[in-house]
Amino acid sequence: MSISVKELVSKMTLEEKAMLVVGAGKSRRIPGAAGETRSIERLGIPSIVTADGPQGVRIEGDGKPYSATAFPSAIVLASTWNPEVAEKVGRAMGEEAREYGVDILLAPGMNIHRNPLCGRIFEYYSEDPLLTGEMAAAFVKGVQSQGVGACLKHFVANNQETNRRLVDTIVSERALREIYLRGFEIAVKKAKPWAVMSAYNKLNGKYCSENEWLLTKVLREDWGFDGLVMTDWGAGENPIEQMKAGNDLLMPGNDDQVKAIIEAVKKGELSEEILDRNVKNILKVIVKTPAFKGYKYSNKPDLEAHAKVAYEAAAEGIVILKNENNTLPLSKETKIAVFGTGQIETLRGGLGSGWTHPKYTVSILEGFRERGLKIDSELAEKYEKYVEEMRSREEYKPKRLDIPLPPLPQDFLSEEEVEKYAKRNDVAVVVISRLSGEGWDLKPVKGGFYLSDDEKSLLEKVSRAFHKYGKKVVVVLNIGLPIEVASWRDLVDAILLIWQPGQEVGRVTADALVGVINPSGKLPVTFPKDYKDVPSWSFPGEPPDNPVKVVYYEDIYVGYRYYDTFGVEPAYSFGYGLSYTEFEYSDLKVEVFEESIKVKFKVKNVGKYPGKEVAQVYVSPPRGEIPKPLQELKGFRKTRLLQPGEAEEIEVEIPLRLLASYSCGKWVVEAGKYEIRVGSSSRDIRLRTEITLSKSLSYRP
């Protein structure tokens, strides 16, 4: 079609415009997709289809879900610290969306990990806005390279699930700009996403979908966003205020909203110019979509190739938290006793809009068997029978896919049985799981943030028996968010954090344990020693049992910014992660240019195994007029696979603007001495040097 967007709008009736800005409800063209816009056949404007997608394309189908790859959760992608991996996953997901007739993928989720209890941490990236923004930008580029759109969500400060549809989040503009908005800003400017989804919650008194400052002033005027803004499903209260604020598309949409918009224009309560503006924003995206271009989708994405992408991403996101006396990697001849029902009920991801329908999921037990690990078959069969028998009981039966399974009691083996397995095996592997998802937050209780009594009892029993015979104990954490580890980690020799890594979970876990994979993941979030150490103590708001307001009292001091600045010792620090090999840092050189700082250094593999290292660059500011964290991440780079003895020259460029703090309506870089810190984690700094900025700099938002 050669007609321009401007001409299309001029030919539309008021009714057609109102129909275009309100979704059609459930998708008719692709049954079970999240939503669809309304077509205007008279003008050749097709409907476009949206589908959920944080962990893979989700289409429920008409009675039978579409098969799509279950990719690693976003927290796993962030743990890779490798934008190339995120882009590759985005490409694969974009191809699946396109071949299933989807025009916009409702991903990535980008909310900051403010509190470890948030139920959707698994589908968000990090507590740090730079890491969040860089990984999301890469993912968006990958998705959109396939000719479909990506949609950043949930804009903004949707950092909890408790009362998310109504809670008023009270956040200073500085904390918003530096922490909660910055990841979105990076992704908008670097990757130019087609769409942004406004969040359910209120922001400083106004629903995000009705907040003109957020959607027009910040997103469009300050950042130059030129895509469409859609609501989260059923968000907000007033469709007229949403139109005025710059929320172009109301999803999933209903006829009452269409009528309300028509009436408001007729009564002069809504300017038709504003409606036209929103229509143009939607049309600018529609004309780029496969639907508009008449693309003939195949319903046959390359799931086999994408399974390999899912494996590769999962492999790079595994984090070694503990490895006492080189317990790992195990020999392939090691006799292994596997404990915990999570070996069978292995979690590929979290629940809610991130849920997926892959052709298969390889459980941890299946992965061990497939890879030929020498597991104790009698113990494995005992667990299989136990799970089957317990799930047949009414109280443990699964009710629905979108609510958590009742956890099974873990401590059903006697001391004598555990001792028998300790005698005849070389090592114990204990799987600890934690399911979370959209719609609920965890609690700071046993079985939530803390191990349940039966999990702790099993761990103690296994630890006693195996250590009695000089045997090792390894814990595999199959979790979607941080849990408490400090009280029990001394019971075990190694901890392998696999997160929720998608459909290839069993294979990557087996390969990591025996060294086929040398884990190179680093934590994108701090593991606190205890919940009382968490800075966001106001979570989930007031009153605690039914919050209507949550105040972000910690302001900019989120995650490591708090722990490092105020000297609070974490269990495991931001950026932390061990390897089967060792890395040496050297030759730090820093040059200051007019608009950026170039940091150069060398990373060398000085250990025995090939491996990758994530080099992190933090900047510690001078003590100026604006209070600042002790240090902040300003750049990072993952090395290629380095062979023993091999080195790589690393160069990280930091825009001077990235050193700025938000103060009095502008970004300010204060003059003074800045320490450049290069390290393997936020608490493992290997190289330092100082630079001096002779004059202060300021920038418009």
Structure description:
With 701 residues, the chain is of the alpha/beta class. The chain is built from 18 helices and 26 strands. The protein has a six-stranded mixed β-sheet. A six-stranded mixed β-sheet has the order 10-15-14-13-11-12, sandwiched between helices. A hairpin with a 2-residue loop joins β24 and β25 (684-693). The protein is globular and about 80 Å long.
Report a brief summary of the structure.
This protein has 701 residues and is an alpha/beta fold.
- Rounded to an integer in angstroms, the radius of gyration calculated over CA atoms is 26 Å
Which structural class matches the secondary elements?
A: alpha/beta
Q: In percent, how much strand structure appears in the residues?
A: 15-25%
What is the subunit organization of this protein?
single chain
Distance between the termini: 38 Å
Strand order of the largest sheet: 1-2-3-4-6-9
Global geometry:
globular
The percent of residues in helical segments reads 25-40%
The number of distinct helices, counting runs of at least 4 residues, comes to 18
Please give the number of β-strands: 26
The low-confidence runs, each spanning 5 or more residues with pLDDT under 50, are none
Give the biggest beta sheet.
Answer: 6 strands, mixed
Name the average pLDDT. Answer: 97
Observed structural traits:
alpha/beta
What's the layout of helices and strands?
Blueprint: H1 5-11, H2 14-20, E1 35-36, E2 49-52, H3 74-80, H4 83-99, E3 104-106, H5 129-144, E4 149-155, E5 168-170, H6 173-180, H7 182-191, E6 195-198, E7 202-203, E8 206-207, H8 212-222, E9 228-231, H9 239-245, H10 255-266, H11 272-286, H12 303-317, E10 319-323, E11 335-339, H13 364-370, E12 374-375, H14 377-391, H15 415-424, E13 427-434, H16 453-468, E14 472-479, E15 494-497, H17 505-513, E16 549-551, H18 560-565, E17 583-592, E18 596-605, E19 614-620, E20 632-638, E21 647-655, E22 661-663, E23 666-669, E24 672-681, E25 684-693, E26 697-699
Parallel strand pairs: 2-3, 3-4, 4-6, 5-7, 5-16, 6-9, 11-12, 11-13, 13-14, 14-15
Antiparallel strand pairs: 1-2, 7-8, 10-15, 17-18, 18-21, 19-20, 19-24, 22-23, 23-26, 24-25
Helix pairs in contact: 2-10, 2-11, 3-12, 4-5, 4-12, 5-7, 13-17, 15-16
